[in-house]
Each structure stands twice: as C-alpha cells, then as structure tokens.
Automatic annotation (TrEMBL):
This is Aldehyde dehydrogenase family protein. It is an enzyme of class 1 (oxidoreductase). InterPro entries: Ald_DH/histidinol_DH, Ald_DH_C, Ald_DH_N, Aldehyde_DH_dom. GO terms for molecular function: oxidoreductase activity. Keywords: Oxidoreductase. Its EC number is 1.2.1.-. It comes from Neptuniibacter pectenicola. Residues 25-484 form the Aldehyde dehydrogenase domain. Transmembrane segments: none annotated. It comes from the Bacteria. The keyword Membrane does not apply.
C-alpha cells in the first residue's frame, strides 16, 4: 500500500523524525522514540522521538524567548508569515492528505476532500481576521480616561487527540499565532505525522525559530509538564471528558486559563415529515466519516415511530454498501479505527450493549479486509433498545449508533437532553419552524438542521457541560480568546 505514497511522504518517513524545538530538529533528551503504526495494516510506518519534561522545558523557554519578537510584529507582518504557510500547505496538500490518511487510518477521500483544504482555509481566515481585529477600545467613563488594551498571552500550550490531527492543529493554533502568541504543541502520541510535517513547512517559509514548537510524547510525560511549566500562560486541550477534567484541575492549580474541547454523544431527531433520503445520507455519513471517530457526530438516532421501519431499511442498505479498506487507498470510503486499543474498545461496547439487552439492527463488528489482515477494521453496527443501555449513554467513538423510536417532540427532546454531554445535535424535518424550536431546546453547543456535522469559519463551534468549557473554535471569538484584556486608566483633574 505504501506504493501509493508520494515521494515527499516517503522521504519524510524514511528517517526517525525528531522533535521540533526552537526551529531545530532535536532528539529527545531522554533518547526515547516511539513507533507510528499504520492502523490499516498494523505495521510500523515511522519512528518519532518521544519527549519528556526536559524537552518541554526547552520548548517552552524557546517559545517564551520567541514571544518577544513575534508579539512585537505588526499583525500584518504575522499575517504575511501565516499566508506564506498557507501557500506552502496548499502546495503540499497531497502529501499532507496521504500522511493524515496513513497515520489516522482515515479515508484519503475525506483527508484530501475536507481535512486538508478546510484546515488550510483556517490559516487564511485567522491571518485576515488578525489584520482587521480590534486590539482595544476606549471606555467612556466619568472623570477617568480609560481604555482596554488587548495583548497576547505569551506561550500557549496545546494538547491534541488523534482523530483530526491536522484540522485540530489549524483550528486551535492558528488563532493563537495570529494573535501574537507562541506555541508548544503536544500532538497525540498515536498520530504526530502531519503536525511534524507542518513544522517542516513552517521552517521552509521562514516562520521564526521558537514560534512553533512540537514535543511528541505521552500525556503524563509531555502534557503534564507543559501545563505545569511556569512560563506556559494558557492551555487548550482537545480530548476525552475524563482527561479533560484532570487537565482543568491541573490548570486550576496554577491557575491559568484553560479551554477544553471534550467528548460528545450527539443525537439526531428525525421527524416523520423529514426528507428521508437526506436523513439516511447524513446519519450513515455521521458514523462512517472518520470511522465514527468524530466527537460531534450523531450516534443516538431518534426516529419518529411512523417512519422507523422505512428509515432502518434504507440506512442499513446504505451502511452495508460502504467500502471499507485502508485509509490511503483512494477507493476507500471508511478506513479502520485508529488502533488496536480503539478496536477493542468499540467491540467491547458492542458486547456490553448486547449483554444489557440491546438488539442488533445491523450486525457489524470486527471485519477483515483482504490483503490487510493486521488492520483494525470494524464494520458499522446499529443497536436499538432502552435509552438506559450503555451504548446509548456513552461515547463509543467508532462506526456505531443506537436507535430509539419516539412519538412526539417532547419525548424526543427529553431523550436528546438526557445525558451530560453537550456538543452537537441535529433535527430533521420539513417544518422549519419546528426545526428552529427543537434546535433551540437541545442542550449543547451546536444544533444543526437537516444536516449533521456542519462546519464553517465564522460559525462558532464548541461544547458545554461534559463536552467543553472556556470557548470554542472557528470564529472571531476564538481569536479573541488568545488575547488578554488589560485596562489602562488615568484619573482626570
Ligand atoms: P484523550 O483524552 O485520551 O487524549 C487527548 C490528549 O491528552 C492526548 O494527547 C493525550 O496524550 C493527552 N493526555 C492524556 N492524559 C494526559 C495527562 N494526564 N496530562 C496531559 N495530557 C494528557 O483523548 P483521545 O482518545 O486522544 O481522543 C478522543 C477524545 O477526544 C474523544 O472523547 C473525542 O470526543 C474527543 N475530541 C473532542 C473534540 C472537540 O472538539 N470537542 C475534537 C476531537 C476529539
């Protein structure tokens, strides 16, 4: 399968890949390395340096030093660097899409068609926004001349999960850089490849040393010292709700501001007047996109009783026709899950769900793909049963959904709002007034109408409750999250 890789990707993967600290490719001070595994085959594709506390210290000190000059640049000078980076990313989009597909196991068509181009758009969005942004305002007060001055924080730390390495990097790091901060990034240990490749391209376009630093490694070895480092001024964490709580508590000890983007268990409510083909397309897509490893996707499908059987017939046919294969293969529609551990976890949920009394609507689970025996493939599975079932309540993070019939709007809303997660839900109906009403009552950061997984720059995206706190991504507000307010005042007379 690696015959499909372009020469740039092959060259990049051919040598052990060091950490990127202070503009220099550096081996870990601890001398450790980690193997990057292709989930489509279970085989090693690269060796990457695995960092420790000393590496984090070097990275944060470098970022702190670089902050003095990076923050002193005019916004348009920083935007110029970011636009150069966007051009470079564009010229290497194929390589990035291949590396992302190889690393995560995601279908190349998705990496190439969405992840990479949408991520690059983000660079330009924040570069443009930073030039016209509001870096302060005058306050109209009695007897005091006063203003608010907005300044960057300094070193911002980022800790990422493995499902959308490139997009999450862009969505979170670009606003911080555009606002004048410098960054230390800890990618997920499973999927560091595109993040490191971005460093190579950032170096090539001349982004100054120390502005972007990447330390790959385990959560406790790298993530924790990054949070605890006295010169780290804020943290953005994307990952599971469980780890997110620990991160919040560590940030609270310092204390430093902390943005959490966490797990989800999104619902889709399909009324009996909905465009059924569209609902089927959207919801089958919701669990096959990135093999269902999407925080905001719909995995609780609430279907009106009048159309339940029809919906099931259509959606099962659609899911059965999904082409499962290696991520890097352009014919693949759904790749494997990211790791053996993730495969075990997704299958474990299936077995627990059945033990608790769920019934299979579509039998899926572990599946072999010809010629790729070692890959971590899971065919889509659908269950139905009680909303008390573990598979209705917990985030499975695989190609699985749980169906429940409902009678009316109130019952559907009760089901949607029965969990502590609050990331994204959707409603499907021809009655747009009803859609708007239901959308407002679903307790989450995002409600989508007649679609699921809707993203655009300028459309704020974030979670509430167990799904996140402290801001979101993809909007002007995200940019301002990376500026701190300073009030400057002079009493008059
Ligand atoms: P995870 O929480 O296990 O790990 C996320 C990151 O935290 C990794 O880089 C990991 O190394 C690091 N980490 C783990 N323990 C740590 C510690 N003690 N100190 C510091 N860092 C630590 O999540 P995952 O399995 O990589 O990703 C899947 C989860 O991410 C899902 O729950 C998914 O919903 C969520 N997610 C949320 C969003 C969003 O925007 N809300 C986006 C993508 C993924």
């Amino acid at each position: 399968m690696h015959d499909l890789l372009c020469s740039q990707a092959k060259t990049f993967l051919s040598q052990p890949i060091p950490l990127f600290i202070n503009g220099t490719w550096t081996n870990s001070q601890g001398g450790k390395t980690t193997d990057v595994i292709d989930p489509s085959s279970g085989l090693k594709v690269a060796t990457v340096a695995s960092g420790n506390e000393q590496d984090v210290d070097m990275a944060v000190v470098a970022a702190d030093k670089a902050f003095k000059t990076w923050s002193a640049l005019a916004p348009k000078e920083r935007a110029h660097y970011l636009n150069l980076l966007a051009d470079k990313l564009e010229s290497e989009a194929q390589t990035l899409a291949q590396l992302e597909a190889l690393d995560v196991g995601k279908a190349f068509v998705n990496a190439d068609g969405f992840d990479i181009p949408f991520g690059i758009e983000c660079v330009r969005y924040y570069a443009d926004l930073s030039v016209t942004a509001d870096y302060g305002k005058t306050l109209e007060l009695k007897d005091i001349e006063a203003r608010v001055h907005r300044a960057p924080y300094g070193v911002c730390g980022f800790i990422f999960p493995w499902n959308f390495p490139f997009d999450l990097l862009m969505w979170n790091v670009m606003p911080a850089l555009a606002a004048g901060n410098t960054v230390v990034i800890k990618p997920a240990e499973l999927t560091p490849l595109t993040t490191l490749y971005v460093c190579k391209l950032a170096e090539e376009v001349g982004i100054p040393a120390g502005v972007i630093n990447v330390v790959v490694g385990a959560g406790r070895a790298v993530g924790t010292p990054l949070i605890e480092h006295p010169k780290t001024r804020r943290i953005s964490f994307t990952g599971s709700s469980g780890v997110g709580k620990q991160i919040a508590s560590m940030c609270g000890q310092r204390p430093i501001p902390c943005k959490l983007e966490l797990g989800g268990k999104g619902a889709a409510v399909v009324f009996d007047d909905a465009d059924l083909d569209n609902a089927v397309e959207q919801l089958a897509g919701a669990i096959t996109l990135n093999t269902g490893q999407v925080c905001c996707t719909a995995t609780r499908w609430l279907i009106h009783e009048n159309i339940y059987d029809q919906f099931v017939e259509k959606v099962t046919a659609k899911l059965k026709s999904t082409i499962i294969g290696p991520g890097i293969d352009p014919k693949t529609e759904m790749g494997p899950v990211v790791s053996q551990a993730q495969q075990d976890s997704v299958l474990d949920y299936l077995s627990k769900g059945l033990t608790e009394g769920a019934v299979e609507v579509l039998a899926g689970g572990k599946v072999a793909v010809d010629g790729h025996d070692g890959g971590y493939y899971v065919a889509p599975y659908l269950l139905t049963g009680s909303p008390e079932n573990i598979c209705f309540k917990e985030e499975i993070f695989g190609p699985a959904a749980f169906l429940v019939k409902f009678k009316d709007e109130e019952e559907a809303l009760d089901l949607v709002n029965s969990l502590e997660y609050g990331l994204a839900n959707s409603v499907f109906s021809a009655d747009l007034a009803r859609c708007g009403r239901v959308a407002e009552k679903m307790i989450a950061g995002n409600s989508w109408i007649n679609a699921h997984n809707v993203f655009a720059y300028g459309l704020p995206y974030g979670g509430i409750n167990m799904s996140g706190v402290g801001g979101g991504v993809n909007s002007p507000e995200t940019f301002y999250d990376y500026l701190r307010d300073l009030t400057i005042a002079r009493p008059l007379g």
